[in-house]
TrEMBL record:
Transmembrane segment boundaries: none
Gene3D superfamilies reported for this sequence: PEBP-like
Provenance organism: Oppiella nova
Pfam hit, one: PBP
Name of this protein: Uncharacterized protein
Amino acid sequence: MSPLRRDGVVPDVIDSVPKDKITVKYSSGVEVNFGNELTPTQVKDKPVVDWPADRNSYYTLVMSDPDAPNRKEPIYGQVKHWLVINIPGNDVSKGQVLADYIGSGPPQDTGLHRYVFLVYKQSGIINTTEKTVSNRSREGRLQWKVRDFAKQHNLGEPIAANFYQAQFDDWVPIFRQQFTE
């Protein structure tokens, strides 16, 4: 059984298991591996991300937490942690950032949260007037649904995925202080 099914990413976040894997490596030395447990401290900085890509195509990269404030009662819906569109090939640095990367910040005593990375192949450039959400802002991050975004932009199903799980550690209070909006 796919770890995406085992840990409920399918069907909680997406409808089917993508064919490919997204490689996600953090400067702390850890790598995302289909549900492994990482700490908020280890994933606080934006990772390097890679997937099998056609260099002549455009892609959308999403990172979300479907478990806010906890897996049993995700009342905040999915939390948008990172969203980049119009990525040429797999060069994320050349994409259009709609939500700056923020690491994991699960509240104390809420158990493990899943942090899901998805890549969608675009049929063309996405034109949007949506403004960029900074890594200091919560605006537009809560009550977000990747399915709705994918539908709105005709993205279909993701072509690649990966995820890790994290729970509260001593970095979380520091992480939460970064938000000014």
